[in-house]
Design goal:
With about 180 residues, the protein is mainly alpha-helical. The chain has six helices and three strands, in the order ααβααββαα. The chain has one domain: Winged helix-like DNA-binding domain superfamily/Winged helix DNA-binding domain (Arc Repressor Mutant, subunit A, Orthogonal Bundle). α3 crosses α4. The protein is elongated and about 70 Å long.
Length: about 180
Amino acid sequence: MRDAGGPSAPPAAEGFGCPAGGRDAAEGGPPSETDANAELERLLREISSTIRHRGRRVLAEMGITLPQFDALNQLLRHGEMTMGELCERLQVASSTVTDLTDRMERAELVRRCKDGSDRRVVRLHVTERGRAVIDAVLRARAAYVGAVIESLPARRRAGVLGAIRLLHAHVTRPESP
């Protein structure tokens, strides 16, 4: 098993062989488009997994769980919302959000507040402590990514960022397949 924290050489063949009649770089030709796509998917998945793994360590150090982090992020990104709205955003059952909210409220990460226009409605509000925890987690994750980027040759950094921005723009556009 590799250390998720450090760079490593790509693993030996993981079932991404050349299609019938294709040639790979080891045979003197460029990899096929299918091989390149499979490699790109694998690399993106491994990058994402490594960053998530590092992020979970930071969450544990801050004393919050991944579901709490996800809920707090939704609340910070979209503002106060009802528990039903949070259920929809997280795509979980209402009982899950109720338990999650109870734990976050005990940890003083969120507060339940009555809606100003309808007293029957309860909205979730992120506390200052909740904001501070999320800010600390995001700073730690950004520092890790920054350290990785800084370890690249200076002449390659802008190209990597540019390529990732371009890929992100295409993957997240509404008409993306």
